[in-house]
């Protein structure tokens, strides 16, 4: 595999202990359950690409976006009480971006079509809540607070009929951002 192919795929290295100590596991794709490779993970290094990491197996629980860099003690950085249990590689994307956001579940209520970042649904659309969406193009991060703050959710192309049914019942999403190729 050439360096170009590896950079397009992405590579993240997980370490058992803080500051890149202890046993490690190299990952270049999605991993639904890290426990089969290591019992704990407290630091990681992203050598290429972008990844979403989750504090529960099967891409569930709290999510955090990691791009190229070192995360020597990510638990205190994110305020997690548990460690990484699964990860999903975010493919590099260079096309157009398009998403429809809806005020209610099952694509109900007010709808807005978005093609760029939005730092506040309320300010731009006078929309106090977003409970479903349809991602037509691109990869996105949706945040629970304006200005790209708070907990986040990774969205790839597809229909998301109910954030509540996905386990985000107590969250209100208030901003969103495109995952751009410049982040790689």
Automatic annotation (TrEMBL):
The keyword Metal-binding does not apply. The keyword Cell membrane does not apply. It holds the Pfam family Crystall. Residues 10-48, 49-91, 138-180 form the Beta/gamma crystallin 'Greek key' domain. Keywords: Repeat. InterPro entries: Beta/Gamma-Crystallin (IPR050252), Beta/gamma_crystallin (IPR001064), G_crystallin-like (IPR011024). Belongs to the beta/gamma-crystallin family. This is Beta/gamma crystallin 'Greek key' domain-containing protein. It comes from Xenoophorus captivus.
């Amino acid at each position: 595999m050439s360096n170009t192919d590896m950079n397009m795929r992405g590579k993240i290295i997980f370490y058992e202990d803080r500051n890149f100590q202890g046993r490690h596991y190299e990952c270049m794709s999605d991993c639904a359950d890290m426990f089969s490779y290591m019992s704990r993970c407290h630091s990681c290094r992203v050598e290429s690409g972008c990844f979403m990491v989750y504090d529960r197996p099967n891409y569930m629980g709290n999510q955090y976006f990691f791009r190229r860099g070192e995360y020597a003690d990510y638990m205190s950085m994110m305020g997690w009480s548990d460690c990484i249990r699964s990860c999903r590689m975010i493919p590099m994307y260079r096309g157009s971006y398009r998403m429809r956001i809806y005020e209610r579940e099952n694509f109900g209520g007010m709808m807005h079509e978005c093609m760029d970042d939005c730092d506040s649904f309320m300010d731009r659309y006078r929309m106090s809540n977003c409970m479903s969406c349809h991602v037509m193009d691109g990869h996105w991060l949706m945040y629970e607070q304006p200005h790209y703050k708070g907990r986040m959710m990774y969205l790839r192309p597809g229909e998301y009929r109910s954030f509540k049914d996905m386990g985000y019942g107590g969250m209100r999403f208030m901003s969103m951002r495109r995952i751009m190729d410049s982040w790689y």
